[in-house]
Amino acid sequence: MSNDSDSSQAQNDNKAPSKEDKEASFASLGIIEPLCKACEQVKYIKPTDIQVEAIPWALQGRDIIGLAQTGSGKTAAFALPILQALWEAPQGLFACVLAPTRELAFQISETFNALGSTIGVRCAVIVGGMDMMAQSIALSKKPHIIIATPGRLQDHLENTKGFGLRTLKYLVMDEADKLLDMDFGPMIDKILKVIPKERRTYLFSATMTTKVAKLQRASLNNPVKVEVSSKYSTVSTLLQYYLFFPFKHKDCYLIYLCNELAGNSIIIFTRTCNDTQRLALMLRNLGFTAIPLHGQLSQSKRLGSLNKFKAGSRNILVATDVASRGLDIPLVDVVINFDIPANSKDYIHRVGRTARAGRAGKSITLVTQYDVELFQRIEQVIGKQMEVFPIESKDDVLLLQERVSEAQRIAILEMKEENLRNKKGKHKRVKTINIYTNGSIYEALKTIDHILYTLQEKFANDRFY
């Protein structure tokens, strides 16, 4: 449904397409022929809901707040109108897109390059972890589109001679709620002060928060609110399951699932960089082609992991929430939540990596005695109860315990050796603290886990036991 964000402001006489027009083609939305051909080349067969709602307003020159669930095609919804405006009035430094993560910035650049291939668009990705001088040279060539993380863009605005955004025509803030959750707010405020007030601004997000509403009031002019999902939700093609078990068997259940789902493309989400690395090593020791992705890896390794997973040479990606936002990885079959996120919105973004663009997908959440409250909160937010993932017998899972314990031990040793190598290197790195390296502590924790599980088994909700 399309309506102005401020009810006191009247709509223009021109109207966006009605719901009956949703079977329309990109051409009928007003997209020019070269861009329609580019859509065909990247297999965009017909516009998604958010594209049907947003593109006509964008072509009319309105500021837009776009709210849609993850995997709904938000990137093309703002990329196509910008590319069409660039076709009509080409100039360097035409548009800037702000993204919360480096991986998302590179993905947005790929979308712009693919859709703009027929009109010769030039893009520059400006993110941290890359050489500042090389980026300065790229900016001096005045690319049409800049895709950046706010911190690195601010660095260039303050320190790169001759670079400015005084002629900018379009500003896009993608995954705006995440931008603000990651404390980019002050940097965005500084960027807004040095770009023209006469510009078009698009703010896209999967969720609307009070911080996003405040940013909208500060940066958009008489915007149209385009909303195709009014509450936090997951897509209907996603099958959501859970497994409940004692904490001490968590790794064992994960390996069981990976065996059962062999041949599928899987993303495993964890809470910490340490667990991401440990699980990836453990899975490799058991013969799985797993690869880690987390914030402590160098940018080149992060991109390498992502590209290997996308290409299919690795079929298990173990990742922190750095991979949960916006990344469009084709044909992810299963998402496993090894750790339950503290924020229910993050759960929606995680499982949104599968069942994208109308395809089916599956998510499995691992629930221990410590996670019941978080799990129930997620069920309340998504408005449904998840089903138990079917397993033949718990004994089948526990048969793996010996192999898993050995793989855990080897993974811990490999991590300790890596830490020692890092200490001896020229650059000191933060030491990874691994509670599992102390055998007595680990055994004590297992005993405490067992006691807690027994107590909760007695008193908790029957549904979980």
TrEMBL record:
**Cellular localization per UniProt:** Nucleus
Q: What is its EC number?
A: 3.6.4.13
Family affiliation: Belongs to the DEAD box helicase family. DDX47/RRP3 subfamily.
Q: Which reaction does it catalyse?
A: ATP + H2O = ADP + phosphate + H(+)
Q: What is this protein called?
A: ATP-dependent rRNA helicase RRP3
Q: What is its main location?
A: nucleus
Q: Which organism is it from?
A: Ambispora leptoticha
Q: Name any GO cellular component annotation.
A: cytosol
What residue intervals hold the motif Q motif? 24-52
Query: What PANTHER family does this protein map onto?
Result: ATP-DEPENDENT RNA HELICASE RHLE-RELATED, RNA HELICASE
